[in-house]
Every structure is written in C-alpha cells, then in structure tokens.
Automatic annotation (TrEMBL):
<feature type="binding site">
    <location>
        <position position="107"/>
    </location>
    <ligand>
        <name>Mg(2+)</name>
    </ligand>
</feature>
<keyword id="KW-0479">Metal-binding</keyword>
<dbReference type="InterPro" id="IPR008278">
    <property type="entry name" value="4-PPantetheinyl_Trfase_dom"/>
</dbReference>
<protein>
    <submittedName>
        <fullName>4'-phosphopantetheinyl transferase superfamily protein</fullName>
    </submittedName>
</protein>
<dbReference type="Pfam" id="PF01648">
    <property type="entry name" value="ACPS"/>
</dbReference>
<feature type="binding site">
    <location>
        <position position="105"/>
    </location>
    <ligand>
        <name>Mg(2+)</name>
    </ligand>
</feature>
<feature type="binding site">
    <location>
        <position position="150"/>
    </location>
    <ligand>
        <name>CoA</name>
    </ligand>
</feature>
<feature type="domain" description="4'-phosphopantetheinyl transferase N-terminal">
    <location>
        <begin position="28"/>
        <end position="94"/>
    </location>
</feature>
<dbReference type="GO" id="GO:0000287">
    <property type="term" value="F:magnesium ion binding"/>
</dbReference>
<dbReference type="InterPro" id="IPR037143">
    <property type="entry name" value="4-PPantetheinyl_Trfase_dom_sf"/>
</dbReference>
<dbReference type="GO" id="GO:0005886">
    <property type="term" value="C:plasma membrane"/>
</dbReference>
<feature type="binding site">
    <location>
        <position position="39"/>
    </location>
    <ligand>
        <name>CoA</name>
    </ligand>
</feature>
<feature type="domain" description="4'-phosphopantetheinyl transferase">
    <location>
        <begin position="101"/>
        <end position="176"/>
    </location>
</feature>
<dbReference type="GO" id="GO:0009366">
    <property type="term" value="C:enterobactin synthetase complex"/>
</dbReference>
<feature type="binding site">
    <location>
        <begin position="83"/>
        <end position="84"/>
    </location>
    <ligand>
        <name>CoA</name>
    </ligand>
</feature>
<dbReference type="GO" id="GO:0008897">
    <property type="term" value="F:holo-[acyl-carrier-protein] synthase activity"/>
</dbReference>
<feature type="binding site">
    <location>
        <position position="164"/>
    </location>
    <ligand>
        <name>CoA</name>
    </ligand>
</feature>
Length: 241
C-alpha cells in the first residue's frame, strides 16, 4: 500500500501484522527490553520493513537508533521514515543523492475526538475540513489531517533538528473523486517555520487504515531553516518508531 504513495526511487515495504522471525540488533533490542509485547513487535516489525528497503537499495541493513528528537538515525547516504498503527507497519528508504526527505504516517481510519481536532487544526483548517466533509462525507478528514501533519513532522524534524507545533503548518487537501490510488495534499509551513518550503503529499484510505507520505527531491529542502521556539503542549507527537 505504501509503495503507491512514493516515487520509484524510494524503496517501500509494509505489512499488516508482525514479522515474528526478525531479529533486532543488540543495540535496538536494548531499547525495548522492558517494553510490553505489543510495543516490542511494532518496533521490531518496522525495522524488519526498513531492512527490506535497505536491501532493495543495495545496502546492508543497519541498526536504527533514535537521535536527539527521537527520529531514527539512518545510515550515511540514506534517508527514510517509519510508521505503525494497530495492525499495520511501514517503512520507506531512499538514497540521499536522490531524495532529500521522507515522511510517512499511518492512522486507524476512525474519527478523531473533537477535543483533539481543536488542538491540531487552525481556524482555516477547520473551515476546510467542514467543506470536505460536506462534499466527501465518507472520508475521515479530521483523522487524515492529523495523519498529514504527522508525516510532515517526520520530514521536518530530521531536516531541521527542531520541534514543530501542529500550528506550524497548514494542510490543504485536493481530493480526486473516484481515484482509488493516492490523493494529493499540500503542507505550507507558517509563522517561524515559513522559511521551510511548501511540500506536496499523497494519501490513501484502505483496509481500515489512513496512510500519508511526503517525498522531497534532492536539493528541495533548505540547508538551514529558522527553528520555531514554541515547544508547548501543541507540538506534534513525534512518534517516529
């Protein structure tokens, strides 16, 4: 499913369920040795998926350990992103010479609590969601907004080395009725984050899962970006896996 949302130069792997035979590197295993079984399996399985991607790119799989802000540190010359939700795991990896950044997210295709929507959406986005719900009521637009912002944060954080609040970017969807494949959206950073370029993403709803993906070509991201200094409770969750 995830491969439908990224270009050919990106290796993608996903699965519904867990890779029960995958062996973690010792350094990876140490980070989940006290975790509950469900967390251990989702952590293990996204690393299995990432290993498949690395092999497809001609690279030997390597440990994926968290950096300062929690994002996985990819081997030199590679960029990537991981995601998981109940029953679904995915990874995407590419050569840094071809792709400057990747961000993916998966969420259950279920309504988002109203209290959460109010924290993640701007006034303009709330109006946008209302119009989308009226035109395309079958789509969980509120959850999809959350999913799109999470994917953007996973792109943003490794590229800038900084946090970003949910209010640091505006999302606009452009649904294509009848299109069973990925559908487009645009993310425009705002405020202190506006030095970062707008990026385009794709989304897909299938098998009870919403998936979003953003890919930026080599050279598309700036070398330096002003870092927002708002790190209050509205920050994106930053669950990188």
């Amino acid at each position: 499913m995830i491969e439908e949302l990224v270009p050919a130069e990106v290796a993608a792997c996903d699965l519904f369920g867990d890779a029960r035979t995958h062996r973690l590197f010792d350094s990876e295993r140490a980070l989940v040795e006290n975790a509950v079984a469900a967390r251990t399996w989702e952590y293990t399985t996204v690393r299995w998926a990432a290993a498949q991607c690395m092999r497809r790119l001609g690279r030997i799989p390597a440990p994926l350990l968290p950096g300062r802000l929690g994002a996985p540190r990819w081997p030199d010359g590679l960029v990537g992103s991981l995601t998981h939700c109940a029953g679904y795991r995915a990874a995407v990896v590419a050569h840094a010479s071809a792709v400057s950044g990747l961000g993916i997210d998966a969420e259950p295709d279920e309504p988002l609590p109203d209290t959460v929507v109010g924290h993640i959406a701007s006034a303009g986005e709330l109006q946008h969601l209302a119009a989308l719900r009226s035109a395309h009521p079958a789509v969980r637009w509120d959850r999809l907004l959350f999913c799109a912002k999470e994917a953007f944060y996973k792109l943003w954080s490794p590229a800038t080395g900084s946090w970003l609040g949910f209010d640091g970017a505006e999302v606009r969807f452009a649904p294509s009725p009848g299109d069973a494949r990925g559908r487009g959206y645009v993310v425009r950073p705002t405020g202190a984050a506006s030095g970062f370029p707008a990026v385009r993403g794709q989304w897909l709803a299938r098998h009870g899962v919403l998936v979003t993906a953003i890919t930026t070509a080599a050279g598309a991201l700036p070398a330096t970006v002003p870092a927002p200094d708002d790190q209050d409770g509205t920050a994106a969750t930053g669950i990188f896996s």
